[in-house]
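User: Hello, can you help with two protein structures?

Assistant: Certainly.
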Amino acid sequence: MENLKTRLRDDMKTHLKAGNKVALTTVRNLIGEINTREKGGKTPIELDDAAVIALLQKEAARRRETAQTYTDAGAADRAAAESAEAEIIEAYLPSPLDAAAVQGIIDSAVASLKADGVELSMRSMGAVMKLVSAEVAGRFDGKSVSDMVRASLA
């Protein structure tokens, strides 16, 4: 399975050849942001797919907020451009989960811990969250997941 950074680089070449300027610029900006994060600190790091997904979510949200600001200011053409970039970015994000799927993941995590002999209480919320977060990462709201886990343990 290819990782997300490789997919972005391959898509950048595809957009360049196809002459799709909006997608090309958007993907180039994303790659630049990833490179900045990797090389910007005291020591270079390698972002994994989870970190890249988190970065893409922030970039898409930022573009949506900017589009809303432009819409409120009456600049519909700029708002449309920002929305188009957000849609391009969101195409790289994993498909979101619904509440029923997340509850199923929580139930299986709780059952797994019970099978391991762990007595579940509110103190074991961290252990459940660790298992659930690994599967849900970036596909469902973290606060909602936390509330659902708390309700399952209560």
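That covers the first. Now for the second protein you mentioned:
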Amino acid sequence: MKNIITIGFVILSIIFLSSCEKGIQGDQGEPGNTNVKTTIVTITPAEWSGTTTVEAEKNLSIITDEIAEYGAIFVYIKIGDKMYKSMPYTWPEDGNSTIYRFKTAPNLIKFEIHSEGTTVTPATNRVFKVVAMSASEYDYAKRNKKVDFNNYTQVEEYISQIQIIK
């Protein structure tokens, strides 16, 4: 009797599972890695404020609570058409050394400009690339892939590799 019940259960399971229909296939998601997010932030001259230190803030959803607390955030300032330099960055401008730096909090980034002389609000847009990654991804990239996060070319190459793999 026990064998009959077991066989009956197996047969019913097979019938039930084989009668299930598959749903409609959804759209393909964005390629990438959920542990690494990047975005471009542009600050216009009108967005800067302050006198001694000039500041601009942006809400940034890629800086999650977890990333802000445990992860890693890297910011690169665009110099010229294609080159990005790691921040903080010292820019020789108007005969003074102008220091670009940043601060973060969950969902927020603040850019600061400070100069040895008079701090001047930039007359043109400043473009920044922000890279936010989980602590585990940062640790893996640093230890196993030997990524130098001060070298934007290495960071860009690493990000492009993980987007293809995952």
